[in-house]
Amino acid sequence: MTRNQQANQFSNRLFTRFYVVLVLLLLFLGSGLQYVLNRMDEAQLIRDIKLVHQPLFASISQVLSVHEPAQWDQLLNDIQQRTETGLWLMSLADFTADRDTLEQLSNGDMLALFDVDDQLTLYQRLDGSEQVLGITPQTRLSQEQRLWVLPVFYSLLALGLYVLIRPFARQLLQLKQAAADLGQGDFTARVEVPASTTLAPIADAFNTMIREIEQLMLTQRDLVNAVSHELRTPLARLKFAFEALETQTGTEPLTDTVAAMRTDVRELETLIDEMLRYAEVNQTDAFEKQPLNIRDWLTELTSQHATDQLEVRLGLDASISAGQVILCDEIQLSRALSNVLRNALSFAREQCQLSALIQDGQLLVDVADDGLGLDALHAQRLFEPFYTVKNQHRKAGYGLGLSIARKIAHKHHGELSVVKGTMSGACFRFTLPLV
């Protein structure tokens, strides 16, 4: 038996057990409720029967009171034939076994008692005598004519429960199977249920979780592959450099080799620093935010990244006043904007432009360059870790800067995206809430 067959068999047993327990519980509760209702109906019916027969007791008692006791049996037979009602006389002494019954009859109360055949009989003492008149009512308390109602009702209830619960159980089984498949590494597993069902929100959340886990696993795989590649290149150069040291003679070739080795070491250090920053941003839940003057901050960043070969222009909209601030982590947000600026400078031919404005309570910062621009394929994957765009104008880079910048923007409840700019190259936009 396969694993799926075992799971299905177990789930079917679990559903059957749950269904049987639920039906039995409903039967027990329903029977108890039916018993209480029947007892209430029975008590009310007895009161009605006693009320209906009270005049008959009074009439018979009056008829018998004007005749001698020796004639009572004959009179009762005549009345019984005319009314088709069971009538007979008993001695009060016949009820001495039950003191409560004897006391009530002695007080003239009408009693309703059942015989061994569950037949109701009414008893009342005749005034001024030791005789008790018994009357068998024509109305019976038997509910045999309604006995079929309960089985039909509970059968329909059980059928309705089955119709309602079975799809729910099947969907739970599907959710369980998808979770088991996910545990085996199958990220294609999905839970498909109708949108109108109760489990639809849970299924949607589960499917979203699987997609996110799948994306995380793909990112991790790409990250490991990229790190391995990036580390292998400078290490290979260092290996060749060490081999060259063993064969080189003279001071000048040796100096050049050592300088190249130092460059490779710095490259490794830079890569490690970028990876540590990437890990730091991912592990940080929230940044400590402080007010930061927008104009002063952007002016300082622009001056820091300007070079003799490339111009970095700053354009601030009138919506940003001299005292306008943004609530943020200055170090992290400066790192994010610096990463984007350095990326723009690596593609620019002559200049980059940084522009900012405030719109709908958000700070919009655009970083554009006059390079060759981006095609649609690069724009979709640009923020993936270690994804790089290489061309003849591209300077060195590891593909982590934009990914780090976007993570920092998200931690500030903002966004970093690619938009259409006014220059020939790419344009990146930070969208950041002011508070």
From TrEMBL:
Q: What class of enzyme is it?
A: transferase
Q: Where are the transmembrane segments?
A: 18-37, 147-165
- What is the annotated signal peptide range for this record? none
State the organism's lineage: Bacteria, Pseudomonadati, Pseudomonadota, Gammaproteobacteria, Lysobacterales
Keywords, A to Z, come to: ATP-binding, Cell membrane, Kinase, Membrane, Nucleotide-binding, Phosphoprotein, Transferase, Transmembrane, Transmembrane helix
What organism does the UniProt record list as the source?
Marinicella sediminis
A Pfam family name for this chain? Answer: HATPase_c
Q: Which reaction does it catalyse?
A: ATP + protein L-histidine = ADP + protein N-phospho-L-histidine
* Entries under InterPro entries matching the protein: 2C_sensor_his_kinase (IPR050980), HAMP_dom (IPR003660), HATPase_C_sf (IPR036890), HATPase_dom (IPR003594), His_kinase_dom (IPR005467), HisK_dim/P_dom (IPR003661), HisK_dim/P_sf (IPR036097), Sig_transdc_His_kin-like_C (IPR004358)
Instruction: Name the domain of life this protein comes from.
Output: Bacteria
Q: What is this protein called?
A: histidine kinase
What EC designation does it have? 2.7.13.3
Domain Histidine kinase, chain residue ranges per copy: 226-435
Q: Where in the cell is it found?
A: Cell membrane
Name the membrane topology term. Answer: Multi-pass membrane protein
In Gene Ontology terms, what is one molecular function of this protein?
kinase activity
- The chain positions of domain HAMP read 166-218
The record's listing under PROSITE patterns reads: HAMP, HIS_KIN
